[in-house]
Design goal:
single chain, five-stranded mixed sheet, 10 strands
Length: about 350
């Protein structure tokens, strides 16, 4: 576009904007070639729009704000609160998981030891009090009863052989965690098909002995699942040496017998081959944890090491009030535990 045409175009725009004049200009010239006016206006308008868009975008960028210091502090406070809540919970869950795993390994360790002691034909190293825990566990590994030495997962925890109870115990920070025999029994129970909720919902009444299991009663439910397992048939197992499905043995007699009876004297006289049993389910008053009867001490030889599951027969006692304990070598009772501690 030559200078004259460009000047004409500027005057046209200025007059149009300031005075709104209507000026009929059909062509501008660019060299010798005429250019229609509408094309010039169109290009100019596009250029103006581009410039306006750029200014608008720059303005938006100037108006865009980042996080203020207050907002950052609030976010950090929320993250800190969540950390305080979540981290301890996770740590607790991890510790409980490690503890459960260790108790499961404790059950494996005790079962392996029982099998080893049943098979050994020489002097029993588990009766020699000078033998260390490392030596005894190494003996189980070398004889093929364990694939490797079992090490607790929990921090500062150890497995130690208790010569008095003839069972491995689980120690944390040098202190025994609960009762080793009860924990051993609990670990065995965890492998069974017994469901605590189902046990609570079962009838609270006592089922008398017959040629069939009575799983619709509290004692019959426990007996069937401990002795036969979760099978459809209620036909009673008939095995001379006794048996239970969780491989739990009396630490003294090494019997696996499950006794479901409320007249111990009658049972003792008739089934001597089964005693001392591994587990006794009963509502006989002499077996109540607070009973002062001498019956247990008088029959200690036939009851020592027996795990007792007891519920009073007085009134309609809820199943959750059943207790579990074991009988010591002299016929005395260990501390009793709620059945929920064992089955749940």
């Amino acid at each position: 576009m030559d200078k004259a045409s460009f000047l004409q175009f500027k005057l046209f725009i200025a007059a149009k904007i300031k005075y709104n004049y209507t000026i009929q200009v059909n062509y501008f010239r660019c060299g010798n070639d005429p250019i229609p006016c509408y094309r010039i206006l169109y290009c100019f308008a596009r250029r103006m729009l581009v410039m306006l868009d750029v200014k608008s975008e720059n303005k938006k960028r100037r108006n865009t704000k980042g996080f203020t210091l207050l907002e950052m502090l609030i976010v950090l406070a929320i993250i800190t609160i969540l950390a305080v809540i979540v981290v301890p919970s996770y740590s607790k869950i991890l510790r409980e998981s490690e503890s459960k795993s260790d108790l499961s390994n404790l059950a494996i360790l005790n079962r392996s030891t029982v099998y080893y002691r049943m098979d050994i034909e020489t002097a029993d190293p588990f009766e020699i009090t000078t033998n260390t825990n490392e030596f005894l566990m190494g003996e189980l590994v070398s004889e093929g009863y364990l694939s490797e030495v079992i090490t607790p997962l929990a921090a500062n925890a150890t497995f130690e052989w208790d010569f008095d109870t003839a069972a491995w115990s689980y120690y944390v920070d040098g202190e025994a965690t609960g009762d080793a025999i009860i924990e051993n029994f609990t670990a065995h129970i965890a492998e069974s098909s017994i469901q605590y909720d189902t046990f609570l919902a079962t009838s609270t009444t006592w089922g008398s002995l017959s040629n069939l299991y009575k799983p619709n009663t509290w004692n019959g439910y426990l007996e069937k699942l401990l002795e036969r397992g979760d099978v459809e048939s209620n036909v009673r197992r008939d095995e001379d040496s006794g048996h239970n499905t969780i491989d739990y043995q009396n630490p003294y007699s090494e019997k696996e017998t499950v006794v479901n009876y409320n007249d111990w004297t009658w049972f003792q006289n008739r089934y001597e081959a089964y005693i001392p049993p591994a587990i006794l389910i009963t509502n006989e008053d002499d077996f109540a944890p607070d009973s002062t009867s001498s019956m247990l001490s008088d029959n200690a030889e036939y009851l020592k090491g027996t795990m007792v599951i007891y519920k009073s027969k007085t009134g309609d006692v809820a199943n959750e009030q059943a207790v579990v304990y074991y009988i010591l070598e002299d016929g005395s009772k260990s501390d009793s535990y709620s059945v929920s501690d064992v089955l749940d």
